[in-house]
Amino acid sequence: MAHKKGQGSVRNGRDSLSKRRGLKAYGGQAVTVGSIIVTQCGTKFHPGRFVRIAKDCSIFSLVEGKVYFDQGGRRINVQPNDPTSTAIC
């Protein structure tokens, strides 16, 4: 009889947690300043007006307003609640 476990049970048993990437705010939904709209790997979605892209390619809002998409749903913009918004765009 073997006195050690088989190697298969030692090397298995690891599984990474999912990263929960994707859209966090949809078209027409209200967002606040700094709220994340999309988490992604690479640039599946591109930043538009009043949004920026983070170092990990997440897209976040610069102003308070509503999210909308254009260019076939690939560019993300935020329509500010305040029409005289002075955020850098």
Automatic annotation (TrEMBL):
Gene3D superfamilies from the UniProt entry: 2.40.50.100
Single GO BP term: translation
SUPFAM superfamilies: Ribosomal L27 protein-like
Residue spans crossing the bilayer: none
Cellular component per GO, a single term: cytosolic large ribosomal subunit
A molecular function (GO) term: structural constituent of ribosome
Region (Disordered): 1-21
Keywords: Ribonucleoprotein, Ribosomal protein
Top-level taxon of the source organism: Bacteria
Family (UniProt): Belongs to the bacterial ribosomal protein bL27 family.
Protein name per Swiss-Prot or TrEMBL: Large ribosomal subunit protein bL27
Organism: Gemmata obscuriglobus
